[in-house]
Specification:
By secondary structure, the chain is α/β, with parallel strands linked by helices. The protein contains 12 helices and 21 strands. The protein has one domain: Peptidase S8/S53 domain (Rossmann fold), CATH 3.40.50.200. It is globular and about 55 Å long.
Length: 454
């Protein structure tokens, strides 16, 4: 990245950002050296699974043995299926025995292997590496309407070994203005209503669907990576199905990091994801978030989100630099497409902890999160108060600040804290994160080329 590009990025990130309130997103958090059979280096652009677990308070769950045992996740993929060879290699690296089941849904061509689908099946296992099973429902390429059948199939226990799934992760999206105008590709006129009915059905059954807020920032119709010349940069838009009130919508963050020679280090700030794209370095990419133009705020958001419309996202997680990685020379992952299945996996680890303490699945997670934000915000969430998701500064929205905001939602989750707030007795971590003394600062945007982006 050139000095000019760095200066431009810094200027954009300064746009309309409230002064830091000393909230948790700016409190330094240490992380250990990378571990795992396929990760030996300490590259500045990568975060190994054990490091990500430490930063999202999953290590106490890991050490207590709550790693997703007995829980099952369904992944709904659009036009792709995962690379089984890569999944097997990833599993071998970390001693994972979780089986992968793939079912193709829809008429037409068999979906090809793709990086998006491969990302989707690996990220939950970073958070919950002992899941009972990962089920993938992959659709015919290019047909968004097929997502209806895919989600319907995922919710049918006949397709998941006779037992219902515990969570769904999906990373497909369409911007709301295109759905309102009827110009969205390959969807019927009843698509939003039909999809919303399925999502509500899942919530009623206690199955939380996690949906990515997309990667076009507060202008979802611009898609990603977003060129400066794209006229959609100035059009405020949220993405569906993340805008549905019947999902947990996941936005994106990135880290300012210092690293030591052994790969351990410290996150000095977790901020809203908004940076030059590693895949297309003249364009930008950012975590989705805006007010819905289709849905009213559900009861649990009323009085919390600005205005009367459904606010997106609900929470946020790592989506930008430094990237998720599991090998020195293999995949790097970014995007809300990575943040979403990771968050879903974290929830399944929490469910494992609850079950171990005789506590039933509390049901659809979204209203629970808003209730806990009112009573246990400091222990369950890390408030993101720095940054914005206005990709080129033309929408005028959305900046992070104390409490809920349309750039990062309620903040990032502290999963052990979430488990404790719901009644599980999870002891604090015993893992040392002591680092050596010679640090090198890593900028928030690092010029690398990920193999896969979300």
């Amino acid at each position: 990245m050139t000095g000019t590009a760095v200066a431009a990025a810094a200027a954009l990130l300064a746009l309309a950002i409230p002064a830091s309130s000393g909230a948790q997103s700016t409190t330094a958090r240490p992380f250990p050296a990378p571990e795992g059979g396929c990760y030996t280096g300490a590259g500045p652009t990568a975060m190994a699974p054990n490091q990500v677990r430490a930063l999202y308070d999953l290590t106490p769950l890991w050490e207590a043995g709550h790693r997703g045992q007995g829980k099952r996740i369904a992944i709904v993929d659009l036009g792709q299926q995962p690379d089984r060879t890569e999944f097997d290699t990833f599993s071998h690296c970390f001693g994972i025995d979780t089986p992968l089941h793939v079912q193709v849904v829809g008429d037409g061509a068999t979906p090809p292997v793709g990086g998006e689908a491969s990302l989707d099946v690996q990220l939950p296992l970073i958070a919950a590496p002992e899941l009972e099973a990962v089920y993938v429902f992959a659709t015919t390429p290019g047909l968004h309407d097929a997502q209806l059948r895919a989600l319907e199939a995922a919710l049918d226990p006949a397709n998941t070994g006779g037992e219902p799934i515990d969570a769904v992760s999906t990373s497909f999206s369409l911007c709301e203005p295109s759905l309102i105008a009827g110009t969205a590709p390959s969807v019927g006129p009843d698509y939003v209503d039909d999809m919303s009915a399925l999502l509500e059905q899942a919530a009623a059954r206690g199955i939380t669907v996690f949906a990515d807020a997309a990667d076009g920032g507060s202008s979802a119709c611009a898609h990603w990576p977003v060129a400066e010349s794209n006229p959609q940069n100035a059009v405020a838009a949220a993405a569906f199905p993340a805008s549905s009130p019947w999902v947990v919508a996941v936005g994106g963050t990135q880290f300012d990091v210092t690293k030591q020679p052994d790969g351990s280090g410290e996150v000095t700030t977790e901020l809203v994801w908004n940076e030059l794209s590693a895949k297309s370095p003249t364009d930008r990419i950012a975590g989705g978030g805006e007010q819905s133009q289709i849905f009213d705020a559900p009861p649990w958001q009323q009085g919390v989100v600005p205005g009367t419309a459904r606010g997106v996202p609900d929470v946020a997680a790592l989506a930008g630099t430094p990237y998720y990685s599991w090998s020195d020379d293999a995949s790097f992952w970014d995007g809300t497409s990575a943040a979403t299945p990771f968050t879903a996996g974290g929830w399944l680890a929490v469910l494992t902890a609850l079950e171990a303490h005789g506590i039933a699945n509390p049901g659809f997670l979204a209203p629970i999160l808003y209730d806990l934000h009112a009573t246990d915000a400091d222990t369950v969430f890390r408030d993101i108060t720095v940054g914005n998701n206005d990709v080129w500064g033309r929408v005028g929205c959305c900046a992070a600040g104390p409490g809920y905001d349309l750039a990062s939602g309620l903040g990032s989750l502290r999963f052990a804290g979430l488990a404790r707030a719901l009644g599980a007795q999870v002891p604090p971590t015993t893992t040392s994160t002591t680092t050596s003394t010679t640090a090198s600062t890593v900028p928030a945007a690092v010029p690398v080329t990920p193999q896969f982006t979300g």
